Amino acid sequence: MSEINFDEMQTVLMTQFGEIIKDNNQVKLDVERRYNQEKQQATDSYNYTAKEIKSQFDSDTQAINNKNRELSSYMNNLSICSSKSKEKISYIFDIFNIYPSGESFVQKNRAAIDALKSYFNQADDFSGKINSCINNDKKTVKSLLALFFIEFFFLWIITGTIAKFFCYLNRIDDTLWILSAAIFSFVVSISIEFNYIFTFYLKPKKYYSHILQITIEAKEIYNECVQKADQLIKNEERLYNERMAENEKKHEKRIQTIEDNYENIRQTAQKEFEAKLAELHRRISAYKQAVDTSSPRWDDEFWQSWNVASKLPDMIRIGELTTGRWNGDKSRIKDCQFSMPALLPFPSEQGILFSINGEERNLIAKQLQSLLLRLTASIPPGKLRFTFIDPVGLGQNAAAFLHLADYDESLVTTKAWSEPRHIEQRLGELTEHIENVIQKYLRNTYKTIEEFNSYAGELTEPYRFLIINDFPANFSEDAVRRLISILQNGPRCGIYTIIICDREKNMPHRFDIRNIGRHTRVFHSYENENQLIWGARDFKCLLSLDEPPAQEYFNTIISQVGKAAVAAMRVEVPFAKILEKAGLSPEAWQRGSTAEEIRIPLGPVGANRVQFLELGKGTSHHALIAGKIGSGKSTLLHVLIVNLALTYSPDEVQFYLIDFKKGVEFKTYAAHALPHARVIAIESEREFGLSVLQDLDALLKRRGDLFRKAEVADLKNYRRKTSQIMPRIILLVDEFQEFFTEDDPVAAKVSQILDRLVRQGRAFGVHIILGSQTLAGTYTLARSTIDQMAVRIALQCSETDSRLILSDDNAAARLLSRPGEAIYNAANGLVEGNNPFQVAWLPDEERDQYLDKINALARQQNFAFPQSQIVFEGNAPAASSNYRAAETFFRLAGRADCHQRGDCGAVPAAKRQQSGDCRARR
């Protein structure tokens, strides 16, 4: 892709579109809210005013009516001479003062009110007099009553006594006479008091006529007031109607003003919205053109002359986005509709989940091939790996991409996987890869694999895509847990997951699909449209995935990428670059000391670190190397030998090189007379190899004698105590399995000596490095011996060999995907000791140049090897002169002792093979 930042462009356009729609909707809501609020306020104000007018009218009329009724009641019940007449008359007058608009009423009816008041005052005066009379007469009545009883009693006594006496004289019955006396006394007493009682009723009579007249005139004035009150009520009704009409008019005017303002604001907002939309359409058109130029549609002529990508893309084109009104989004503006290419950022922070119905799976699976082909065409060859899981289609959904396995199986993890146990294994491998990336590469230095790759140079990690069809079919609970872990941690480690999930299927026990949704970009299928719902931050739209291109273009892309991947996957980290990183400048060549340990660089680890081979310290004394053909094992051995010769002088380290292969890997060291090499065996025979081991076994004994004399236990203390240089010995055997191809005495002797060298050699500075293509086989080195070799270096190999060279539970080497990629393990192969690295690349020409420089350094230092160098070539014709030279060397070597310039070993002459050439180099 071009330098255009499509991620930013798409984000900006989508954000702008969302903001335009959101702002427009917000403006509409604000305007409508304001319109409704103002309209409601006007209506509320209108209703409130109307209510106030009505309330005032009702209050006034009700008060008038109520007081009229009270006045009428008081007037009708006005009792002349009542003890409460004064209060009633005063209250009647107060009624007129509290009428609504009472003050106005009093002013207009002052004369009548004054007259009524005068009448009421007179009535009050008369009532007072009457009340006074009544109060006085009440006392009189009481006196009269007492007097009556007194008169009656005395009269009865007197008359009764006279009657009784009369009857006594006449001797007649006195009962009738006594009763007659009582009646007589009562009649007389009543007659006496009648005058007073008559006077009580007639005395106030002269006042009653005045009060009656006043009452009559008051009623007339009352009737006049009632009539005027009725008129006042009519006036109130007229005033009420006028005020209501005025309120209605104001309300209508205010509503019209509000509607006019609303329409003006709405039109202004619509114009602004249309202007923004037009500008957005212009930018989208430019964006479309840029995308079509950088990532053309499948039907573009560009693909007829397409070449593989050279750098990573920023975005991956997946389809077309369409916006506008649709059932899933009610907030869309009717006329706001456009389409634009749909791009996904790469690398992404999330995986992808297609949540579909079962009926749509075939269509989505087909369209997914378009997305995967885009990835294949957009990512540089060799930087992309696929892992296909297809439990229902059994590989049919990945068939088009499995052609990549014809070029390199690691491009598609060999095949598509469908069985539950295979699914768990593949997910386990990806989880293991994530652990390795986090712990070995990223650590706390890099946030993501992209940041790491920007510094890693040749060691950039490829991007891996896990493609899962028909989830959750054949997924166990363990597999689901691994998948969640991959979704959580995979993106930052360069592992991205694409899942097609049938939401109608039953999910595994105790699993919630939302756990996947939290770590993925979710696309839901849209009903009856063969489209998906694209959910963005501020808006949603429809996504139509691209259909795959014509089969011709499809196959062409796969073929070209596969071919290019084979070459691109070859990683070559220059040997000189590793020397520089390790601080091994020419000034430091051959200045190292092996008194403490051997430490040489092998290749880079991650972006900035270097992996060293370390022997002679702790438990790291011997090394086992394994890798299949083409894994880079030979290159590793050359790097190891050359780095040893560059770091240390021949006084510090000496080699015994044995190569059992049908090749000439070590011949260059003989040709260049590598001063560090004591023995160089090319295409060696087993018997000669045994001779070398016997020589080293004898060397152990000689050094043992020296150490005992010096009273030391190891080489480090020997050199410290004697100040004598004693070189460390490196026995390097390539394809050491050849020792054990036959079950014979040679194999038994080799196994015995090797076990002794491995167990005892560490104290005497003898280090064994064994290399092989495989450790599998009926006859091999004893496991107990292998267990004593703490350092394991595994290159590309099978799972079985990975478990053999590392440990039973360590199959990490099976995941190595390119030549030279290796695992350095100094923990007897335990998983926790795995340290992946890349073997430095040392071409033959460059290697020979370094050998020349090594020889030049030896000459500058006037180095003179004390004994002859033995070179055995199993494929060379016999030469008697060489035999004689070798025999002389063996004889001298047998009597040689250890001195300050190095060790002399003996290879018995009897072990020479007539089929080869063994010569001594002076």
Fold topology:
Layout: H1 6-76, H2 85-97, H3 102-108, H4 110-170, H5 175-202, H6 205-294, E1 315-322, E2 339-345, E3 351-356, H7 361-378, E4 384-389, E5 416-417, H8 420-442, H9 449-456, E6 463-471, H10 477-489, E7 495-502, H11 514-517, E8 520-526, E9 531-535, E10 540-545, H12 551-568, H13 575-581, E11 598-605, E12 609-615, E13 623-626, H14 633-647, E14 653-659, H15 667-671, E15 677-682, H16 686-710, H17 715-722, E16 728-734, H18 745-760, E17 766-772, H19 783-787, E18 791-794, H20 799-805, E19 821-825, E20 834-838, H21 844-860, E21 869-873, H22 880-895, E22 917-921
Parallel strand pairs: 3-7, 3-8, 4-5, 4-6, 6-7, 13-17, 13-18, 14-15, 14-16, 15-21, 16-17
Antiparallel strand pairs: 1-2, 1-10, 8-9, 9-10, 11-12, 18-19, 19-20, 21-22
Helix pairs in contact: 1-2, 1-6, 2-4, 4-5, 4-6, 8-10, 14-21, 16-18
Task: Describe this entry's structure for a reader.
This is FtsK/SpoIIIE family protein. One of its GO terms (molecular function) is ATP binding. InterPro entries: AAA+_ATPase, FtsK/SpoIIIE/SftA, FtsK_dom, P-loop_NTPase. It comes from Candidatus Electronema aureum. Keywords: ATP-binding, Coiled coil, Membrane, Nucleotide-binding, Transmembrane, Transmembrane helix. This protein is an alpha/beta fold and 922 residues long. Among the domains are: 313-568, 3-Layer(aba) Sandwich (Rossmann fold); 575-855, 3-Layer(aba) Sandwich (Rossmann fold), CATH 3.40.50.300. It contains 22 helices and 22 strands. The strands form 3 sheets. It has a 10-stranded mixed β-sheet. The protein has a 10-stranded mixed β-sheet with strand order 20-19-18-13-17-16-14-15-21-22, with helices on both faces. β6 (463-471), α10 (477-489) and β7 (495-502) form a beta-alpha-beta unit. α1 packs antiparallel against α6 (205-294), α4 runs antiparallel to α5 (175-202) and α8 (420-442) runs parallel beside α10. The chain is elongated and about 200 Å long.
